[in-house]
UniProtKB/TrEMBL annotation:
<protein>
    <recommendedName>
        <fullName>Sulfotransferase domain-containing protein</fullName>
    </recommendedName>
</protein>
<dbReference type="InterPro" id="IPR027417">
    <property type="entry name" value="P-loop_NTPase"/>
</dbReference>
Length: 413
């Protein structure tokens, strides 16, 4: 479901980005429904009355939590993470040395970014809407295949006729394996690297419809693990006047870094940046995966990089949360073991009220963004490797573990 985000080329990202922008603007202004065109011409993402932001480290369980919450009938949401829209606007590496965006960074087209962030937002409603899903498929295609000139109007007609996207992609020589909702088997080789957004996992669930003017009274649910490094910037530059509540989702270090280790070693869309040559023990790929923390390294052990990603993300959330008045810390372990009560706590925190559609989803949540079948304490399959990294960890790791209250290994499910 929530497409990881970006793969940006170090060599010529501007050419690729400009091509994606051109095709996206064409779709936004000429291909999607007139109703959606009207919304995007008059409104921006900061026009919502309230925002619920999920902040966590990668492989922290945010995709599952996001998918549950976006089924609440008083919410709106994107179809996945919003990193791709920041990348389209050049607000990413290599413009920055890492995923950290300074709170005072203002050198970007704010109006355009806020409009772009609204481009695929839909409303949770049981009946859903086919045109919404078709429009969202179209606005994402230039980000996913920016170096291809596709007949977007014809693609839209075929989608509305009921032709599957798989069939349409095959017609243009694009393996469906490279797109959303593909088979669980891993690709034999990495996907095309010239993308703004990686294809897998992004989808609009069937209970979403297009935005109307009245929907801005609802709560917008957002999540992207990269937000861990830009919370003050989000508060000051994107939503300075919006009621923003933050859910800090935590997960024990062993399970998180084990999930990261799995994801790095799969050709399944977790690649994010071309940072140059990588010499990481345990990794044979050529692209960086997941978030790019400050102090990232290109040499060493992959398991240590995974630990760094967990530590740095949560350290920055702990530091950046002071920019917000309302922050709720939630354990992913509780989302798994006491789903109903934990979701109820979040719903009350966000002032959302009851939702029959949400209740149904809580009882039978979707399986999203998994690298392997979910299983408690799966990290113990490579316990020696994981603990070797934890034993080498520095003082910052110890401080984060203590602040997040993960000092008892018996609780690391």
């Amino acid at each position: 479901m929530g497409g990881w985000g970006v793969v940006s080329l170090e060599e010529a990202p501007d050419d690729l980005r400009n091509q994606a922008k051109r095709n996206y603007e064409h779709i936004k202004n000429e291909v999607i429904t007139e109703e959606k065109q009207s919304i995007l011409s008059k409104y921006q993402v900061n026009d919502f009355d309230s925002v619920l932001l999920i902040a966590t480290a990668p492989r922290g369980g945010s995709s599952l939590l996001f998918d549950i919450l976006r089924h609440h009938e008083e919410t709106c949401s994107l179809d996945g993470e919003h990193d791709r829209w920041l990348t389209l606007n050049g607000i990413c590496y290599p413009a920055f040395e890492s995923d950290v965006i300074p709170a005072d960074f203002e050198s970007f087209d704010r109006e355009k970014l806020l409009t772009d962030l609204l481009a695929e937002v839909g409303v949770a409603e049981r009946s859903g809407g086919r045109t919404h899903r078709v429009d969202n498929t179209l606005v994402r295609l230039p980000l996913q295949f920016p170096n291809r000139e596709l007949p977007y109007k014809r693609i839209r007609e075929k989608l509305l006729e009921g032709v599957s996207l798989d069939e349409i992609l095959k017609e243009f020589g694009i393996p469906p394996l490279q797109y959303d909702e593909y088979s669980e088997q891993d690709a034999n080789s990495p996907f095309e690297t010239e993308t703004i957004e990686d294809r897998p996992f992004v989808s609009s669930h069937s209970h979403k419809r297009s935005l109307t003017v009245d929907d801005f009274k609802r709560t917008l649910v957002l999540k992207a693990s990269g937000d861990a490094y830009r919370l003050p910037w989000i508060r000051e530059q994107l939503f300075p006047e919006t009621d923003v509540k933050v859910v800090h989702l935590t997960r024990n270090p062993a399970a998180s870094i084990n999930g990261l280790y799995d994801g790095w070693r799969l050709n399944r869309g977790f690649q994010t940046y071309n940072v140059g040559d990588l010499d990481l023990e345990g990794y044979s790929g050529s692209l960086w995966c997941y978030d790019l923390p400050p102090g990232w390294v290109s040499e060493g052990k992959l398991i240590d990089v995974c630990l760094m990603q967990w530590v740095q993300a949560h350290r920055h959330i702990l530091d950046g949360r002071v920019a917000f008045d309302d922050v709720l810390r939630v354990r992913f372990e509780d989302v798994l073991t006491d789903t109903s009560s934990t979701i109820k706590e979040i719903i009350e925190f966000a002032d959302l009220g009851e939702s029959a559609l949400l209740t149904e989803n809580v009882k039978n949540p979707n399986k999203v963004m998994t690298t392997k079948d979910p299983r408690h304490a799966r990290w113990r399959d490579r316990e020696d490797l994981v603990k070797s990294a934890l034993n080498r960890a520095d003082k910052t790791y110890t401080e984060v573990v203590e602040k997040l209250e993960y000092t008892e290994e018996s609780e690391w499910i």
